[in-house]
UniProtKB/TrEMBL annotation:
Keywords: Membrane, Symport, Transmembrane, Transmembrane helix, Transport. One of its GO terms (molecular function) is symporter activity. It comes from Campylobacter sputorum subsp. sputorum. GO terms for cellular component: membrane. This is Transporter. Coiled coil: none annotated. The chain crosses the membrane at residues 12-30, 42-60, 91-115, 151-170, 182-199, 219-243, 264-286, 306-329, 350-369, 389-411, 423-442. It comes from the Bacteria. It holds the Pfam family SNF. It is found in: Membrane. Belongs to the sodium:neurotransmitter symporter (SNF) (TC 2.A.22) family.
Length: 443
């Protein structure tokens, strides 16, 4: 088999994984779901779910990925306990690829939205420094420039796809690793700046109370479903990212440490992201439950109330763009690696095939979902929302469940042996992990 690249160190792998998981899941999806589900109750359940479900599932996919060090489909092959593994298990890998396609179909379009906002603010088409702007004005801009302007969003989405293209050409590991080394520190710095600015606003404490004080009457079945979907979305579980990225890990890397570090880091960043949004919303009397358009319709009003309003607005949307980029690269890589290793297509051609195919069959329909194709409905949702619902609520969870069963029922001792490589943790710790897995898929 062709020599496979490896991450330069455990730290760079964790940084790259953090980039893969700290995307719109943390900075866009988590805040708006928190607002829709009543604030503190959602945050509390999310943190518990990340520890009890998220971290064990990261370890599941890390074990699957590093075991054979191949693509996300063939990782479900080989032998276990002296027997050949049924080829039917590769269905789980293909489901992961479908999930990856589903999320990238609309994910890149949101990246296009963000670029459109950055461009419009910098060049004065959406000037926030002219005094306090109204909610009607922000909604009008959103409707005209995002919802009803497929031409502009096509251009900005194309630019975002091309940025991914040029980074991916550097290689499966080196491109993502080098991007993470540069982009993640910038992302952390921008987050700190935005949080400090928001928590020092007048009335910010009301937003912090909403965000951190749980109202247990808000804990419903819908909240649990939203939390579960968010955990898998935020950790890039169920669509081959962890399997693919861990396939480039050396055998002496501690999988338990990397899984715990990834889960904790993602949880912390998701919670911190809320401090960029809710204090300012309450400070200026805005509703926190406006849904997916929260950061696009409501936050510009907040920025217009600030000193150096355009600066903070550009900083925030730049943060979103960086977060989106560090996540899109590894998701693309899931599909690129699979095509490269399962066909004779070169890497460069695979990159063009994946990015071009998703653009035509995913990005274009998604950006037209609210205008040209607004009469098309899938399960009662437009194309954009259908991609999100089908991938995040169905494919991610089902694929993750299959991964857990694959490790617990098929690999068994092979999985335990893989996890024990390079770790100082005992077999007892690994057995506790297995016990948690049994509870998860029996539940």
């Amino acid at each position: 088999m062709k020599h496979r690249q490896t991450w330069s160190s455990q730290f760079t792998y964790i940084l790259a994984v953090a980039g893969a998981t700290v995307g719109f899941g943390c900075t866009w999806r988590f805040p708006y779901l928190t607002g829709l589900n009543g604030g503190g109750a959602y945050v509390l359940v999310f943190c518990i779910a990340m520890i009890l479900i998220g971290i064990p599932m990261i370890l599941v996919e890390n074990a699957i990925g590093r075991r054979l060090r191949v693509n996300a489909v063939d990782a479900f092959g080989g032998q276990a306990n002296g027997k050949n593994i049924s080829k039917l298990w590769k269905i789980a890998g293909y489901m992961g690829l479908l999930g990856a396609f589903g999320i990238m179909a609309y994910y890149m379009v949101i990246g296009g939205w963000v670029l459109e906002y950055i461009y419009s603010i910098i060049f004065g088409d959406f000037n926030l420094s002219n005094g306090v702007i109204s909610k009607e004005l922000t909604i009008d801009f959103y409707e005209k420039n995002i919802v009803s302007n497929p031409f502009a969003i096509t251009i900005s989405t194309t630019i975002f796809v091309l940025i991914n293209f040029f980074i991916l050409k550097f290689g499966a590991v080196r491109g993502i690793e080098n991007a993470a080394k540069i982009l993640m520190p910038i992302l952390f710095l921008l987050m700190i700046v935005m949080v400090l600015r928001n928590i020092t606003l007048d009335g910010a404490m009301d937003g912090i109370k909403f965000y951190l004080t749980p109202d247990f009457s808000k804990i419903t079945l819908k909240l649990f479903v939203d939390v579960l979907g968010q955990v898998f979305f935020a950790l890039s579980l169920g669509f081959g990212v962890m399997i693919t990225m861990s396939s480039y890990l050396k055998k002496d890397i501690d999988l338990i440490k990397t899984s715990v570090a990834t889960g904790i880091l993602n949880t912390v960043i998701a919670v911190v992201a809320g401090f960029m949004i809710f204090p300012s919303l309450f400070s200026f009397g805005l509703s926190p439950d406006s849904g997916p358009s929260l950061v696009f319709k409501s936050l510009p009003i907040v920025f217009s109330n600030m000193i150096f309003s355009n600066f903070f607005a550009v900083a925030f949307f730049s943060l979103l763009m960086i977060a989106a980029l560090t996540t899109s690269l590894p998701i693309y890589e899931v599909l690129i690696t699979s095509i490269c290793e399962k066909t004779k297509i070169s890497r460069n051609n695979s990159i063009a095939l994946v990015l071009g195919g998703i653009f035509v069959f995913g990005n274009l329909p998604s950006l037209m979902a609210t205008n040209i194709l607004d009469d098309i409905s899938i399960f009662g949702k437009n194309i954009f929302d259908a991609f999100d619902t089908i991938s995040a609520t169905i494919f991610f969870i089902l694929t993750s469940l299959l991964c857990a069963i694959f490790v617990g029922w098929v690999l068994k001792d092979e999985a335990k042996a893989e996890v024990l490589l390079g770790t100082k943790f005992s077999l007892r710790v690994v057995n506790i992990w297995f016990f948690i897995l049994n509870l998860l898929y029996l539940f």
